[in-house]
Each structure stands twice: as C-alpha cells, then as structure tokens.
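Standup notes
- HV: blocked on the assembly model, inputs below
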Amino acid sequence: MRRQVLFEVARTFLAITLALLLGFIITCLVSSEPVYAFRTFILGPFTSVLRFSSFIETVIPLIFTGLAVSMVFQASQFNIGAEGQFFLGGVAATMVGVALNLPPVIHALVALAGGAVAGGLGGYIPGVLKARWGTSELVSSLMLNYVFFRLGIYVINYHFRDPVAGAMVSHPLRQTSWLQQFLPPTRLHWGVLVAAMAVLFSFLFLYRTRWGYALRMTGLNRSFAGYSGINTASVIIYAQVVGGALAGLGGASELLGIHRRFLWQTMPGYGFDGIIIAILARNNPLLVPVAALFLGYLRTGADIMARMTDITSEMVMVIQAIMILLITAQAFLGHIKHRMVVREAKEHAKLN
Amino acid sequence: MQNLISVILSASFGYAVLRVTTPILFAALGAVVSDRAGVINIGLEGMMLTSAFTGVVVSALTGSAWLGLMAGVLAATGLALIMGYFSLKLKADIILAGIALNLLASGGTVFLLYVVAKDKGISSSLASKVMPQWQLPLIKELPVLGRILSNHNVITYIALVSALAVYYFLYRTPLGLRVRAVGENPHAAESVGVSVHRLQFIALAISGALAGFGGAHLSMGYVSWFSRDMTAGRGFIGLAAAALGGRTPFGALVASLFFGFADALSNYLQSLRIPSEFVQMIPYLATVVGLAIHARGRAKRRDGRVA
C-alpha cells in the first residue's frame, strides 16, 4: 500500500517533469532567448517581495475551488459547477458589502457567509436533481454555470452598478466588509486565514465525521454504501452543497480581500482550475494547498515571463493540459504499477 | 412589446437566427454522435477553437478559404483522436481529458497567435479568407422565406446537410447501428464481436470533424478573424442542445435553433435596452428542466417495473 502511494507520487512528479520539459522545448522553438525566458518562468516568483506575494495571492482562490471540487469528487460525483458557484459567491458578497451597514469584522463575516450560502444553493440544485431522479450532474452543473453567470451579471449591472465608474463595475464595497490586507505593500489579506480554516474544515469533515465517512463510502461504491444503510441520496446532496459553499466562500474572499468591488464581466475560470487542483491533490484536502501553490506558482511565473520576454503566459496552459492528461491517464506507467501490485500480492500470500 | 414582436417576425431576424445557430448545430451534432457511442465529448469547445484558429492561419498562408476550412476540420479531428488515445487507450477519465484539451486549445491558440501574428487578442494582421455566401436559386425568389434562407455562408448550408447526414449515418448505415449498439451496451456489443474502442474512435473523429466545421464558421464566416476564446462556450452549448434534443440529430437541430433564437433575440434586446440576461438564461434553464423531466420519467418507469 505504502509503495503504491510512493509510486503515485513518483508518477505525478514524472508527469510534471515531462510537461515542463515539453514547455521548455516549445520555448526553444519560438523564443530568441529560450534559456532566459524559461529561467524567468521558473525563478520569477522568487525575485522580489511583491512578486512572491502576488504568487501567494493567486493561490488563495485556487485553494477554495480546489477544496470544492475535491469534496464533490470524493463522493464520485462530477463537479463543473464550482465556476458558477464561485461567481455567485462573489455576487452575494457584493450585495452584502454594498447594501448592508454593519460594524467591521461582523460585516466581513456576514459577507463571507452570504457567499457561502449562495454557493451552497448553487450546489444544491445539481445535487438534488441527481439524488432524486438521476439527472446527470455533469450537464446540469455545467448549464447552471451559465444561468448563475447571467443572473449575477443582471444583479450587478442593473442594481449595484456604479454609474460614475467608467467600466461595468459595482459600487465599491463598504470598508467595514473588507478582508484587511495585513502586510502592505503586498495585497495579502485575511482570506489566507479563511482558506486555511476551509482546508482544516474539509479535512475534519471528510475524515473525522460520520457525514464525511458516509460521503467517502458513497464515493467508493454507491450500491455498497446503500446496502450498508447509508442514505446515499442525502450524501450526494450535501456533498454538492458543501462543495458549493466552499466555492462561494472563495468568490466572496476574493472580492472582499482583493477587488473590493465587483468587476467580473466574464467567468474568472477558478472553477476549472479547481478541477486541475483536485486531480493533482488526489482529492485530499490536505494536499489541496500544495497543489494550489504549485499551480499558482506556474501562473505567476508565466505572467512574469510574459512581461520580461517574448513568450506569452498562455504557454503555461499548455503545460497544465499535458500534466492533466498524463496524470489522469491510468495506463501511463501502468505496467510498472501492475507488476508492483502483483509482487505485493505474492509477498502477502507467502506471509500467510 | 409591439416593437419586439415585429422584430421577431422580420425576415432579417430569421436570417440572424440561422446564422448564430450554425456553430451551435455543428457542436450539437458532434455531441450526438459521440454521446450515442457512449463517449462524452467535453472537448468540443477546444476542437472548435483549434479549427477556428487553423482555418484563419492556413487560409492566410494559402490564400484559399476552402483549404483553410479543410485544415481546420482536420486539426479538430486530430484533437479528437488525441482525446480518444488518452481516454480509450491510456484510460484517462474522458471528461478530464476533454477539460485538458480545452485548456490546451485555449492556451495553445493564443500562444501560436502571438507567434504568427504578434498579437495576443486578434488575428487581424493576417490576411485570412472567408467562405463565400451562397444565393439559393429559386428559393431566393420566395417572398419572406427567400430572405431568411438564401445568401448564407456556405458553412451554414453544410450544417443543415450535416444534420441529415448524421441522421442517415446513425439510423441507416451498419456502422451507425454499431455505434449506437456500443453506446447502448458496450458489453453486449463486444460479445457479438464489435470492437468497442474502434467504434468509439470513429465516433470521436466524426464528432471532432463536425466541431471543426463549427469552429471554421466562427472565424471564416461569422466574422473574418480569429480572436482568443472566440468559441465563448458554444461547444458546451452544443452539449446542452444535444441533451435537450434527446440525443437525436433532428432533436439537436430543433434545440440548436432554440438556442440560436434566444441568442439572436438577446442581441436585439440589448439594442432596445431591455435586460437580455433573462432571455440568454432561458435555453440553459430549459436544458436543466428538460433533463430533469426526462430523468424523472425514466426513474418512474424503472420504479414501476420493480413494483
């Protein structure tokens, strides 16, 4: 068992290495200064305090959607809806932040809670449709992304839009609702703490409560879990609701901590990033921050490279795509794993 | 309101609906073919985008729109085969493989656009070609219908013919029958000697080619340039239209027209300063509701049989 975990780690590293190698080859083909470009990409995030902190800022929303997707994946349910739930969380936080007048801290907490509730509701719909009637949560969560997006844009543009601002943005949030940035000149904000608590919560929920146990059992084998007396329909619903709440919390944290007014006119893409992170972290909440750090690091490095050299930041998307393909391809190095399992089984047989 | 109704009933509105339906219909037909073979093609979006980009570049290089179209379709088909290789041969989850391919296409096209056009947003510095528009003989003489149906881009007519072709393929050819058998029950199909993987590969390739036509329409018909992420979710809308249309070619055609209608209507509403968000939302909501009703009916039938 232990050896198989090590094998998975090694496989992941090999996939990452191959993807980066491919990235380097592409760089060599199109850049006039490939070595400099690639060095900027790899070392860039560590070359100044501001760059390093922008790297950490990038990671915060990724942790939330990574957790959201992992939570639902653990129940063997699909989740493409984190995108819309994250967006909805941001809309709800904006509504609370602009419309309500509350004392500091409490205002921020209410705005975060509003984001979580909105995201949770966004997860409830695909959850309940799947649990009741077996409607594909893949298609329904995908469609709901567009519904939530239009709904959010309508709410912001017709009810919270700042007519003075030159662009389509909401009124600024009241200062009382902000998640303070605690380390100027960086934009590091208390969303870091919220993210850390979300990681801890997800871990405890999944591995230390009976709900989490039921969720994981349902994910491993829904029929078996059902025969053992677990109400798998309710598990599917609360997995989607908790996942949605985590995504919504992420959207709220991003607005309250960084933007301070609603400015998304397209979907920001964190939901799909969450899927990449869940894959890298094998749906384990404790590994989600590690995977999010890695992805955030690649993103920041790519942005710096794009500014300093003749390579565009989109190269990193190609690298990510290759990573996902290699990691999810079970047959990649599959023969080695197969041999390992056989050997282990034989040793086991000898012992008994 | 009077104003709105007269807009909807005008010939130019009908023309606009057909125009915006074209790429959605291709995606929907692609989704029908792959769904029927039991493989969900989430990568339609990326395949369309790749084709839109390839079409622009190749037509600019060769000076021929038709060569651009062919290259776009081939590129999209190639991407579908890569997806098939990873999911069928290397056992990657097909949905995750599709998401990876969408990412690859979205990033890869912008990356290459910068290489060939030194611009990250739009290909306007490339002298790319557009596919011709066709006047339909006889039909163009008809009073209102002529203005709706005639003078469209060639690719729009290819789309309508493709709906027929996909129908013929799925229901009137032995290969189509096998494709449906594989999707219905792969084990049963395998037990009578049908190669499941081979047929799923074929279905994915057809699905990719259809997506390729849809992508080429965007950059060589709908507009005359490539811009980043210009598919704007149409591949996913195609999946929705296929689901709403009950995974049949003609159902997909009707559902695509419905999506196209909502899309065209929202464009008009925006010019009339009416909130268009709700109109744009309707097709997606309809898909969710339609799927739920469909699944509910199935669940009831199943329970009924048990009892």
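- HV (later): unblocked. DSSP finds 14 helices and no strands in chain A. Residues 85 and 122 of chain A are 6 Å apart (CA to CA).
- Next: hand off to the docking folks.
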